[in-house]
Amino acid sequence: MALKQLQLHIRGRVQGVYFRASAQREARRLGLSGWVKNRPDGSIEIVAEGEELSIRELYGWAQKGPTAARVDRVETRWRGYTGEYADFRIVD
Questions:
Q1: How do the pLDDT tens digits run along the chain, 92 residues long?
Q2: Residue 54 CB partners (closer than 8 Å, separation 6+)
Q3: Which one of 10, 13, 55, 60 is at 20 to 30 Å from 78 when CA atoms are compared?
Q4: Residue 68 sits in which domain range?
Q5: C-alpha 84: how far from its chain's center?
Q6: The total number of structural domains that make up the chain
Q7: Is residue 88 part of a domain?
Q8: Nearest C-alpha neighbor of 90 from the set 18, 41, 30, 31
Q9: Helix 52-62, helix 19-29: angle, nearest 10
Q10: Active site residues
Q11: Which residues, at least 6 apart from 73, have a Cβ–Cβ distance to it below 8 Å?
């Protein structure tokens, strides 16, 4: 399977519900690298790299998020793999 990068922009009630920590745990479980952060507009942004199948699993998870979240919309942008991330982190 090919290595890919996916940028996710997640809107809804996604801040203050442990979305970032849950996304980090899920990405690490899937063996992905990249980052997750809160956006000033109340949304969440994720950039994840790794095997395409694992990225698609993370995308599926992001459609719902953690139990306290309400995801209204997920925008995606596929990109080429860069290999620049050593692990998956929460960034400010």
A1: 699 999 999 999 999 999 999 999 999 999 999 999 999 999 999 999 999 999 999 999 999 999 999 999 999 999 999 999 999 999 98
A2: 30, 31, 32
A3: 13
A4: 3-81
A5: 16
A6: 1
A7: no
A8: 18
A9: 150
A10: 20, 38
A11: 10, 11, 12
